[in-house]
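Input (structure):
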C-alpha cells in the first residue's frame, strides 16, 4: 500500500473516532443542549467525507499503478532526497537553539529547496525561506507572545 492510501484511510478513521467522541460529549447545562456538538459534528462529517473520497481516489490510482508497473521500488533519486531531508532535519535540530529560530529555519528551508528544486530555483527558495522564517517569528513573538529561540545577535 502506498502512503497516500494509508494516510487517507487514517483520515477517515480519525473522522469516525472524532464523530463518536463528539456524540459522547455532555450537553450544555443551559441554553440549547446540543449546541456544543454542532461544530465538532460538522468537522467530523467533513473529515469522514473528505477522507473517504480521498481513500477511494488514492486506492483506485494505486491499483491502476500496480497493474501498469511490475515493480514498486522507490527510485534512487527519491531515496537520496529522503535521506538528505532526514539529515537536514537532524542538522536543524542541532543548530536550532544555538543560532536561533530565524537563521536555522532559513538554512533548513534553503537546503530543502536545493534538495527538491535544485540550483535553478534557488533565488525563489531564498526569498521564500527568509520571508517565511521572519514572518513566523514575528507572528509568534509579536502577535501570539510565544518566544522562539533568538540568535546570538540578540534579535531574530
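Output (sequence):
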Amino acid at each position: 500500500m502506498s502512503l497516500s492510501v494509508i494516510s487517507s484511510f487514517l483520515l477517515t478513521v480519525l473522522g469516525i473516532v472524532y464523530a463518536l467522541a463528539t456524540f459522547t460529549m455532555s450537553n450544555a447545562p443551559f441554553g440549547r443542549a446540543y449546541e456544543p456538538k454542532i461544530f465538532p459534528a460538522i468537522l467530523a462529517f467533513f473529515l469522514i467525507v473528505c477522507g473517504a473520497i480521498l481513500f477511494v481516489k488514492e486506492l483506485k490510482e494505486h491499483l491502476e499503478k500496480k497493474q501498469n508497473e511490475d515493480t514498486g521500488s522507490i527510485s534512487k533519486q527519491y531515496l537520496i532526497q529522503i535521506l538528505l531531508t532526514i539529515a537536514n532535519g537532524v542538522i536543524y535540530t542541532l543548530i536550532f537553539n544555538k543560532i536561533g529560530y530565524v537563521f536555522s529555519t532559513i538554512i533548513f528551508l534553503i537546503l530543502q529547496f536545493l534538495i527538491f528544486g535544485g540550483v535553478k530555483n534557488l533565488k525563489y527558495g531564498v526569498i521564500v525561506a527568509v520571508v517565511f522564517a521572519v514572518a513566523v517569528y514575528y507572528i509568534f513573538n509579536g502577535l501570539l507572545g510565544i518566544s522562539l529561540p533568538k540568535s546570538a545577535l540578540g534579535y531574530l
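Notes: The longest helix spans residues 38-68. The chain has two domains: 3-68, 76-143.
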